[in-house]
Design a protein that fits this description.
Layout (H helix, E strand, L loop, with lengths): L3 E3 L19 E2 L8 E3 L6 H9 L13 E2 L4 H8 L8 E5 L2 H12 L17 H4 L9 H7 L9 H14 E5 L3 H12 L6 H18 L19 H9 L1 H16 L8 H5 L1
Parallel strand pairs: 1-3, 1-4, 5-6
Antiparallel strand pairs: 2-3
Helix pairs in contact: 1-2, 5-6, 6-10
Length: about 270
């Protein structure tokens, strides 16, 4: 759509020869896409700290950036933003149990992933879900900055809810098209332009390929779902109880934000 983004692509060695890292600059990594990428990597703690040291978001002379994309959002807003230099986050949220089920089916076949687990190939979903497998309540932990071994408390859940309520433009994966429309309003994207239509059509086609069971660029696959009320569902709901409670709150807040998107972009951002 012709915007500038900061994400993991900015630090990809594939583009090292074409980009001068001595200065902050935006470059075009794709010949068939007008989008530009800033030459920083904000996908890891090390990359975020490196971006901060290089003056990213603090240097008035740096290349313009429309938004950054990172799963390390708690670390990013701590290191890159301040009370006088604020940001608004937006995210597409998925039910935590659906996310865990997807993780199980993906990592039992994704041999190229460092977290691939061959033993899971012989497990049923019910067996796999019967106990914690090294991760619980990922969303709450990410929001409040607690590592996987730290104990979570009801207060952590309250803090996570407050962050969602005050900092995020919320999207829901099961309300995909409506959510993308909200994000477009927030970012000021003209959905009627041919280029925007092409981008949205291409992304929708990638999702459709996933539904047909084909591997797409996001390394996603169609897989069986856990039925609500099943033993697997109940077990996962207990293991990820804080995330389940948070997602219920997220869904409510998604409805509460509807009034923000009834006008133009100015209305949406305020």
């Amino acid at each position: 759509m012709g915007m500038s983004i900061a994400n993991e692509v900015g630090g990809n060695p594939k583009f090292a020869a074409a980009v001068d890292r001595s200065t902050l600059q935006a470059f075009k990594p794709w010949t068939d896409n007008p989008g530009r990428v800033v030459n920083v990597d904000v996908s890891t703690h090390q990359g975020i700290m490196d971006a901060g040291r290089r003056g990213f978001l603090g240097d008035a002379e740096q290349a313009e950036v429309d938004f950054i994309s990172t799963s390390e959002f708690q670390f990013a807003y701590t290191m890159l933003y301040s009370p006088t230099h604020r940001a608004r986050m937006f995210a597409l949220f998925r039910h935590p149990i659906e996310r865990q089920v997807s993780k199980f089916f993906y990592l039992r076949k994704a041999t190229w992933e460092p977290t691939y687990n061959e033993r899971w190939q012989k497990m049923s979903l019910t067996e796999w879900a019967s106990r914690e497998r090294g991760e619980n309540n990922w969303m709450v932990r990410k929001l409040v900055g607690k590592d996987p071994t730290a104990e979570l408390t009801p207060e952590d859940l309250k803090v996570a809810m407050k962050i969602i309520q005050t900092k995020f433009v919320i999207g829901l994966l099961d309300r995909y098209h409506e959510s993308i429309h909200r994000f477009n309003m927030f970012l000021g994207v003209d959905e009627t332009s041919p280029r925007s239509q092409q981008c949205m059509d291409e992304f929708t086609e990638a999702k459709a390929s996933n539904k047909r069971g084909k591997k797409n660029d996001g390394n996603s696959y169609e897989h069986p779902e856990a039925k609500e009320g099943s033993p697997a569902w109940k077990s996962l709901a207990q293991i990820h109880s804080y995330d389940v409670a948070l997602f219920k709150f997220i869904r409510q807040e998604y409805g509460n934000q509807a009034h923000l998107f009834q006008g133009d972009r100015t209305t949406a951002v305020n």
